[in-house]
TrEMBL record:
<comment type="subunit">
    <text>Homohexamer.</text>
</comment>
<dbReference type="InterPro" id="IPR015963">
    <property type="entry name" value="Uridylate_kinase_bac"/>
</dbReference>
<dbReference type="GO" id="GO:0006225">
    <property type="term" value="P:UDP biosynthetic process"/>
</dbReference>
<dbReference type="InterPro" id="IPR001048">
    <property type="entry name" value="Asp/Glu/Uridylate_kinase"/>
</dbReference>
<feature type="binding site">
    <location>
        <position position="74"/>
    </location>
    <ligand>
        <name>UMP</name>
    </ligand>
</feature>
<dbReference type="Pfam" id="PF00696">
    <property type="entry name" value="AA_kinase"/>
</dbReference>
<dbReference type="GO" id="GO:0033862">
    <property type="term" value="F:UMP kinase activity"/>
</dbReference>
<keyword id="KW-0665">Pyrimidine biosynthesis</keyword>
<protein>
    <recommendedName>
        <fullName>Uridylate kinase</fullName>
        <ecNumber>2.7.4.22</ecNumber>
    </recommendedName>
</protein>
<keyword id="KW-0067">ATP-binding</keyword>
<feature type="binding site">
    <location>
        <begin position="12"/>
        <end position="15"/>
    </location>
    <ligand>
        <name>ATP</name>
    </ligand>
</feature>
<feature type="binding site">
    <location>
        <position position="54"/>
    </location>
    <ligand>
        <name>UMP</name>
    </ligand>
</feature>
<feature type="binding site">
    <location>
        <position position="162"/>
    </location>
    <ligand>
        <name>ATP</name>
    </ligand>
</feature>
<comment type="pathway">
    <text>Pyrimidine metabolism; CTP biosynthesis via de novo pathway; UDP from UMP (UMPK route): step 1/1.</text>
</comment>
<dbReference type="GO" id="GO:0005524">
    <property type="term" value="F:ATP binding"/>
</dbReference>
<keyword id="KW-0418">Kinase</keyword>
<feature type="binding site">
    <location>
        <begin position="135"/>
        <end position="142"/>
    </location>
    <ligand>
        <name>UMP</name>
    </ligand>
</feature>
Length: 238
């Protein structure tokens, strides 16, 4: 079994993935399955940090304007990511995996406030680090938060676990004729304006020379499969 040569990875977990078959919120069975996937990755000998999205609860851009300023709406979105992280931390703990939830938005009575140094210490102790709040600032997304934390935590790769199994020539949910890339560069993704992640996330990853893997977190075992070099995905390199 040839595990890819990654010592430390950052998984960007889609909030929407936590809904399972529901239309909103957190599906317990799905959280358990994703926690098992994370544990399978840890057992390959890889240190894992996870930035969790909030799209299953609130996205700031969708609720801004409904009597809310964009920063207020984004605060609700960031709080949504904290709910997801708390659910995942509890599930990992119940499966016997040591994990620490941290947030870029300070809420110390709920989860530890993120500092790079503390997160590095947790990772060195083989704890899964679960990161809420994205960048901690409005007008960003957790994709950009994922690229930022991956760069500062010296991760070897940013792995975006989402609803689709890679980057396509167009959104495959809207265009059935879209074709999937096995490999593409950061420059090409930005130039072709492929909307799998926001441009800020790709630009930050390009600057940090951080590879990105996009894969489907919907398939049980897909995270470990990709780490073993077997899973279906798109690799983005400089
Ligand atoms: N070129 C493309 N290739 C692949 N997927 C694309 C592309 N353009 C748009 N998408 C869409 O992007 C979606 C993934 O991004 P999206 O931002 O919606 O969710 P997320 O970042 O995974 O997490 P969250 O649910 O927390 O917001 C896919 O489900 C897909 O439909
Ligand atoms: O750095 C960040 C990250 C996220 N937000 C807000 O949270 C929601 C949920 O995150 P997704 O990436 O969409 O899953 C996002 O829509 C923003 O409203 C933020 O403000 N800053």
């Amino acid at each position: 079994m040839a595990v890819l040569p990654y010592k430390r990875v950052l998984v960007k977990l889609s909030g929407e993935a936590l809904m399972g078959g529901e239309a909103f919120g957190i599906d317990r069975a799905t959280v358990r399955r994703i926690a098992e996937d994370v544990i399978e990755a840890v057992k390959l000998g890889v240190e894992v940090a996870v930035v969790v999205g909030g799209g299953n609860i609130f996205r700031g851009s969708q609720i801004a304007g409904m009597g809310l300023s964009r920063p207020a709406a984004d605060s609700m979105g960031m709080l949504a990511t904290a709910m997801n992280v708390i659910a995942l931390e509890a599930q990992l703990a119940s499966l016997g995996q040591s994990a620490r939830a941290m947030s870029g938005v300070a809420m110390p009575s709920v989860v530890e406030t993120y500092t790079r140094q503390q997160a590095m210490e947790h990772l060195a102790k083989d704890r899964v680090v679960l990161l809420a709040g994205g960048t901690g600032n409005p007008f960003f997304t957790t994709d950009t938060g994922g690229a930022l934390r991956a760069a500062e935590l010296e991760c070897n790769v940013l792995m975006k676990g989402t609803q689709v199994d890679g980057i396509y020539s167009a959104d495959p949910k809207k265009d059935p004729a879209a074709t999937r890339y096995d490999h593409i560069t950061h420059d090409e993704v930005i130039r072709k304006d492929l909307k799998i992640m926001d441009t800020a996330a790709f630009a930050l990853a390009r600057e940090a020379r951080l590879p990105i893997i996009v894969f489907s977190i919907q398939q049980p075992g897909s995270l470990a499969a990709v780490l073993r070099g077997e899973g279906r995905c798109t690799l983005v390199t400089p």
